[in-house]
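Appendix B, Record 12. Input sequence as logged:
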Amino acid sequence: MGWSEKFEGLASLPKDIRDELESRSQVMDVPEGTTVFAPGMHADNLLLLLSGTVRVQQVSESGREIVLYRVEAGESCVMTTACLIAHEDYAAEGITETACRAVAIPRKVFDDLAAKSDAFRQFVFSSYARRITDLFGVIEALAFQRVDIRLAQRLLKLAGEADTLETTHQKLATELGTAREVVSRQLREFQRRGWIEQNRGSVTLLDRGALEALSEE
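Logged structural output:
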């Protein structure tokens, strides 16, 4: 089974198109903590993730960071797609949060297949549309949602099935696009209520029910 079958939309490509895509692309392993792209860099490849996680974030002129989205296994990077379509440089940075295995589809291959394959174009634009919807959610949350609600949501998401997540106040501030002092104050309030316990470099969720109730307001 080729790597293309791991991506919804590519598995249904005609065999000749799928074979061309796989033969002209490169599978690569990327260590944790690698900057995959950064502002001002050219987009030379469409990146598809086979395993691992890439965090895409933006840094303002004042130095404040915000996480825009994460690329997970089986997904493509909308920032890269946008840059390839518009022939523009990156305006954000992508950093591997784990060791990753990815497929790099060169720009020439991307352009050739987009020109001649309806199915490939559908894959590209469907992936793009889904991620744009996610980004609108980020914008809406930043503009209209209370910080305590967003913090509860992010704690639950980052923790997953675990009770403890390794993080810092600054990292959580970056996740939410706010100041570290704001996050610290809200975490102290959560701890006062008995919802969490803070330790150096970690947060333990003590009352998931309370956090989930707040996250749904």
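Strands lie at 26-30, 35-37, 45-51, 53-59, 65-72, 93-96, 100-106, 164-166, 196-199, 202-205.
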